[in-house]
Amino acid sequence: MATLRELKGRIGSVASSEKITGAMKMISSAKMHKAEGALRRLQPYRNTIEGIIGNLLQADAPFASPLAATRPVQHLTIVALGSDDGLCGAYNVNIAKFVEEQIERLRIEHGSSVAVTIVPVGTKMAKAVARLSGIATIAPTDVVTSKSDGAAIKSFEGALRNSFLNGDTDAVYIAYMNFRSAGRQVATCDRWLPMSPEAFTATGKHTSAKPYLFEPDAQHIFESVLPMYLLSVTQEIFVENQASEQAARVMAMQAANDNAKKLLDQLRLEYNKLRQQSITTELLDIVGGQIRD
């Protein structure tokens, strides 16, 4: 049985842990809200580009671009976005499991012989997908991290785009946690390349075609706008990943804080019982000594 001194030490340790997890939860919550704000600021830019492309398509402008060229898929790339830091529960493990499911699905779709390369973003994600080395090639990148700024994301996006245009890969997918709310993130795998015109018309956002005069012409506009669209999508996905990571960390810290509180209550109850027992024993010794006298 633990002594009063031991229990007091354990109570102090757990109380400190409770304070730390509470503080970390507040920090993660602030970072999550910051990422949410960045996500809201990015959306108007992407919506504007989608509007331009959607109106061009509805005006029967030909959708021709090397970025939209489909070819038999012999090699595909999956970018798996995760975290560089821990303490976010099973966030990276869940994405890694989802990537494994997507590999199975894509091999059914494109053939079992298709070669798959996984590009993990984040040191924790690189460790999580390492177990998939038997079914895919793992190609860590040093160009970008889960916390990279716009310049690094642009460089990474350009490298991915060039790998597709050069024929090094026939399709590029991005797997990440789609941020819906602080309590809900959904594992998502979007086809990044080749682009499809259905991506701009399926949502029904741009349903009213207006008469446009294209200057210089629709093809030049597509060639200018499509890379901008890809970059905006990539930036948005990275920010969603950051928001989802912090949301997962908030939940993990909340669970740790709740467990610390529960353990603290149990230790305090045990401490009080043991202290009461010690006081009762001392009183009995005093009373017993008086009776003998």
Describe this structure in words.
- The protein is of the alpha/beta class and 293 residues long.
- It folds into 2 domains: 57 residues, Helix Hairpins (Orthogonal Bundle); 212 residues, 3-Layer(aba) Sandwich (Pyruvate Kinase, Chain: A, domain 1).
- The mean pLDDT is 88.
- Strands 3-2-1-4-5 form a 5-stranded mixed beta sheet, sandwiched between helices.
- It contains 6 helices and 5 strands.
- Helix 2 links the parallel strand 1 and strand 2.
Write the layout of secondary structure elements.
Blueprint: H1 4-58, E1 75-81, H2 91-110, E2 115-121, H3 123-128, E3 137-138, H4 150-165, E4 171-181, E5 184-193, H5 198-201, H6 218-292
Parallel strand pairs: 1-2, 1-4, 2-3
Antiparallel strand pairs: 4-5
Helix pairs in contact: 1-6, 4-6
Pick out its properties.
alpha/beta, elongated, five-stranded mixed β-sheet, about 60% helix, Pyruvate Kinase, Chain: A, domain 1
